[in-house]
């Protein structure tokens, strides 16, 4: 089964740290929706042979909650007409707190959305102001309570840690607030400074202190401890879920299932070695789609690139890296003897240090050290030269 990702490239306000593709000029929304529908109807060439059975649909962005119900409906209809969407599909909408009202929640339920991802980021007003978010903490708490009342049982929030305005005490308050509100899935992201963002500019100008990695590491440990003590499973480097509430859509990315991406900047993967992604420019995307011209670039991954992706994503999750499965999928053992010996000895030393647990042919990073998983993964990367 495959997944569908729809990128809605509009936001009402630009957050200082964000480098996702979006525009704050929303007058093209109607035309953009028509282009996305057309892209789904015609399917780009590389997508023709992928599984048409769909078990997850995810509206991300940008801010999909800026679309009205008719616009959301027309995109969903296109998905249902083009694909075989399973009956119990997970259908997620990302929404910002300032867009959430009781009426809108009822409308989203009627459209078939059964999971809501709310961009809370923090419950501290000082933090939200620093990030240039469009909502305040009271709005965030109110909309979560309302979403539960409207039967959004699968609800996730995003939180950001490692910001200069976030003390350890406030981080704990954020986590306690989320737990007390009954949240069953939390995505926690370390603040990263991306090029060409307002945050990057302010740091370079000396107006904001640079990100402190020690503070981020401390925040990560506080967060992991608090959430696991409160019944959450730390199932991926940035994701925590109560039993039965893991994100099916994201879990499919990490386990290498195929996915279709529609909309500007959306990425797609055929489940093997081919990826493609749409142009990250609203006008060029709409112009190209309307003229039936390709708006994507394709990349064919080498065996080395693909196996190292499998190592990286596997080690970020609690399911870990299943060595035999990696071998069956991509030929992990067909490296040079030297590269394979280095892989084994590096793996052994991480096991001896207690950073990796190895059982049933599966390497799993000890949750305590999962913050370092990308570094550990890169030490294990295989070479085929
Ligand atoms: S709302 Fe989300 S996508 Fe839009 S600018 Fe803020 S973080 Fe980025």
TrEMBL record:
<dbReference type="InterPro" id="IPR007197">
    <property type="entry name" value="rSAM"/>
</dbReference>
<protein>
    <recommendedName>
        <fullName>Heme chaperone HemW</fullName>
    </recommendedName>
</protein>
<dbReference type="Pfam" id="PF04055">
    <property type="entry name" value="Radical_SAM"/>
</dbReference>
<keyword id="KW-0349">Heme</keyword>
<comment type="function">
    <text>Probably acts as a heme chaperone, transferring heme to an unknown acceptor. Binds one molecule of heme per monomer, possibly covalently. Binds 1 [4Fe-4S] cluster. The cluster is coordinated with 3 cysteines and an exchangeable S-adenosyl-L-methionine.</text>
</comment>
<dbReference type="InterPro" id="IPR006638">
    <property type="entry name" value="Elp3/MiaA/NifB-like_rSAM"/>
</dbReference>
<comment type="similarity">
    <text>Belongs to the anaerobic coproporphyrinogen-III oxidase family. HemW subfamily.</text>
</comment>
<keyword id="KW-0963">Cytoplasm</keyword>
<dbReference type="InterPro" id="IPR034505">
    <property type="entry name" value="Coproporphyrinogen-III_oxidase"/>
</dbReference>
<dbReference type="InterPro" id="IPR023404">
    <property type="entry name" value="rSAM_horseshoe"/>
</dbReference>
<keyword id="KW-0949">S-adenosyl-L-methionine</keyword>
<dbReference type="InterPro" id="IPR004559">
    <property type="entry name" value="HemW-like"/>
</dbReference>
<feature type="domain" description="Radical SAM core">
    <location>
        <begin position="1"/>
        <end position="233"/>
    </location>
</feature>
<keyword id="KW-0004">4Fe-4S</keyword>
<keyword id="KW-0411">Iron-sulfur</keyword>
<dbReference type="InterPro" id="IPR058240">
    <property type="entry name" value="rSAM_sf"/>
</dbReference>
<keyword id="KW-0479">Metal-binding</keyword>
<keyword id="KW-0143">Chaperone</keyword>
<keyword id="KW-0408">Iron</keyword>
């Amino acid at each position: 089964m495959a997944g569908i990702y729809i990128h809605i490239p509009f936001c009402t306000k630009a957050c200082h740290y964000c480098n996702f593709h979006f525009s704050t000029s929303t007058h093209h929304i109607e035309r953009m929706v028509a282009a996305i529908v057309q892209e789904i109807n015609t399917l780009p060439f590389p997508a023709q042979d992928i599984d048409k059975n769909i078990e997850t649909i995810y509206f991300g962005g940008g801010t999909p909650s800026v679309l009205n119900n008719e616009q959301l409906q027309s995109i969903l209809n296109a998905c249902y007409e083009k694909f075989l969407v399973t009956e119990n599909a997970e259908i997620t909408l990302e929404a910002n707190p300032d867009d959430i009202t009781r009426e809108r929640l009822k409308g989203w339920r009627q459209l078939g959305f059964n999971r809501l991802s709310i961009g809370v980021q923090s419950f501290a007003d000082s933090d939200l102001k620093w990030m240039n978010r469009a909502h305040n903490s009271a709005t965030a708490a109110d909309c979560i309570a309302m979403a539960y009342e409207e039967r959004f049982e699968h609800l996730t929030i995003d939180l950001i840690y490692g910001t200069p305005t976030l003390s350890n005490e406030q981080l704990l308050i954020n986590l306690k607030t989320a737990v007390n509100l009954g949240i069953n899935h939390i995505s926690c992201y370390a603040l990263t400074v991306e090029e060409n963002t307002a945050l990057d500019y302010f740091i370079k100008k000396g107006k904001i202190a640079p990100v402190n990695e020690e503070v981020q590491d401390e925040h990560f440990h506080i967060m992991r401890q608090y959430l696991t003590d409160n019944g959450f499973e730390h199932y991926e480097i940035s994701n925590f879920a109560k039993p039965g509430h893991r994100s099916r859509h994201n879990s499919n990315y990490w386990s290498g299932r195929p996915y279709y991406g529609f909309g500007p900047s959306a990425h797609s993967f055929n489940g093997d070695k081919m990826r493609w992604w749409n142009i990250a420019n609203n006008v060029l995307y709409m112009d190209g789609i309307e003229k039936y011209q390709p708006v994507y670039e394709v990349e064919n991954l080498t065996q080395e690139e693909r196996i190292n992706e499998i190592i990286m994503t596997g080690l970020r999750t609690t399911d870990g890296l299943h060595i035999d499965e990696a071998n069956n999928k991509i030929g992990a053992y067909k490296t040079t003897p030297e590269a394979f010996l280095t892989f084994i000895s590096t793996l052994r030393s991480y096991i001896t240090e207690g950073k990796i647990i190895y059982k049933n042919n599966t390497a799993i990073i000890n949750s305590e050290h999962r913050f370092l998983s990308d570094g550990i993964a890169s030490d294990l990367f295989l070479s085929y030269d």
